[in-house]
Amino acid sequence: MEIQTVSRRLCPLCGSAGELLYEDLEDNLFRAPGKWRLRRCPNAECGLCWLDPVAREADLQLLYENYYTHDGRDAFSGFRAKLRSFFLNGYESAKWLSSRALGLAQEKRKLLNMFLDDWLPPGRILDVGCGSGDFLYRMYQLGWSVSGVDFDDKAIANAKDKYGKLGFELLHNDLAGARFPDNSFEAVTMNHVIEHVPEPVSLLSEVNRVLKPGGRLVAITPNAQSLGHALFRDCWRGLEPPRHLQIFSLNALGYCARQASFKTVLVKSSAANADIIVGASFGIRKARQQMTVSRAGHEINMLRALRSCLIQYREALLLHKQPNCGEEAILICHK
Ligand SMILES: [Zn+2]
């Protein structure tokens, strides 16, 4: 499988010449071929990191051949599934008090509902990059009318299998291709999507068009300025070469939203999922050392879970002094 690429020497957001951040990056998660380079924008107002070169648009789907959304099954079954569930329940219980004290439990709940808890009454929601459709099901249960698009045909097929009978509108397309009428939705959500698309400003402009006046966009994406990135460098889970075409700083995310004509723009970072991202980064670091593929999602590793949890607490405390150090960047804006 040969992937054709195009070079991107200039920042896709502000046009500055990028400085080299990493080279010889490989896909230690889903075995897409190739070696990849990451550049960083020196403009302090921006700070975007981006892949150079990137797969040309016609070849992007080749990067997703082994992607996890293609497999509806759990990596664990039988006794291993029970053991994992026992371990996870114990882990969550042990973390309960400290997570509440640090505000992580409350923040995690907000993330699960994509910061739409306060939106009443529920209206029409569109999830861009809806994957398995599980988030839409959650919102459906809260009373929302739900629609989802995903350019990944296998992911949409899985979502239709699970939720098609409930009348969800699920389209195999990118957002522009779905051609929703102007002013269609009260809310549009994108959970770990904007880092995958070749033209993020165009995507947000299209979101702006399909939102009703006053409607809300919520986007979550890896944060290039996070503590995890500083600790794990080129092994950080948020980089995910070659599928993450850009990794945003908080400034870059706000810049992108303003270019797409959003009126009010709020950006912040969160440590609520830091244990998961850091745990996966440990897995990637080990895979790189052993020149293999990370099995972090298939292992039960208590020591790694404990170390990840401690880094999450450190990050949660650091956030008070350094609000841009969370693993995930969150964009909330209104039309
Ligand atoms: Zn830039």
Helix segment tally: 10
Chemical compounds bound to the protein: zinc ion
Query: How many domain units?
Result: 1
Helix content: 25-40%
Strand content: 15-25%
Q: Which structural class best describes the helix and strand composition?
A: alpha/beta
Which descriptor suits the 3D outline?
Answer: globular
Query: How big is the Rg?
Result: 19 Å
Distance between the termini: 42 Å
CATH class: Alpha Beta
Proper CATH architecture = 3-Layer(aba) Sandwich
> What is the quaternary state of this protein?
single chain
Taken in chain order, the helices and strands follow as EEEEEHHEHEHEHEHEHEHEHHE
Strand order of the largest sheet: 8-7-6-9-10-13-12
Structure write-up:
The mean pLDDT is about 90. This protein starts with a strand and ends with a strand. It has one domain: Vaccinia Virus protein VP39 (Rossmann fold, 3-Layer(aba) Sandwich). The protein is globular. It has about 325 residues and is α/β, with parallel strands linked by helices. The protein is built from ten helices and 13 strands. Bound molecules: zinc ion (ZN). Zinc ion (ZN) binds near residues 11, 14, 16, 41 and 43.
